[in-house]
Amino acid sequence: MITLKGENIYLRALESEDLEFVHAVENDESIWEISNTQTPYSKFLIKQYLEKAHKDIFEVKQLRLVISSYEEVALGMIDLFDFDFRNSRAGVGILVKEPSDRQKGYGHEALKLLIDYSFTHLGLHQLYCNISEENKASVKLFTNQGFKEIGLKKDWNIVNGTYKNEYLFQLINN
What we know:
Blueprint: E1 9-13, H1 19-26, H2 32-35, H3 43-52, H4 57-60, E2 63-69, E3 74-84, E4 89-96, H5 106-120, E5 126-132, H6 136-144, E6 148-159, E7 162-172
Parallel strand pairs: 4-5
Antiparallel strand pairs: 1-2, 2-3, 3-4, 5-7, 6-7
Helix pairs in contact: 1-3
InterPro entries: Acyl_CoA_acyltransferase (IPR016181), GNAT_dom (IPR000182)
Protein name: GNAT family N-acetyltransferase
Organism: Flaviramulus aquimarinus
């Protein structure tokens, strides 16, 4: 049985009812640096995205899940992206939307659930993530789950006219 349920949160598929939440996340300029977003998204485009969200990861190369409390509150999202079946790997992205919900273990629990799902049910060999050198909370989150820093990409992203370094982390399923 596939379990995407943790002690305090669970991971669920995107639903059409998530339109307002996804729209708010995608248009929050304070997190664009993390998601490499360049422009706002309309509700129309997000609605189209949600209509296709049911498609299989093998088809669309992405799986986006909502991090939800057991009180049915959407706390954030966690993604597998650039799914590469041939090489058995995928990238991981995670966001807990509200600063007041961060540092409460939700991200840790969600990442653990996604890692277990990726290795056990998708049969992936490795996961990777890209983290800004300044994002100490994400570095801590991923290293606590066993991800290893394998490189630093110098001047990788430009943010507000300043180039920033980005770490590459990797977790290999042994």
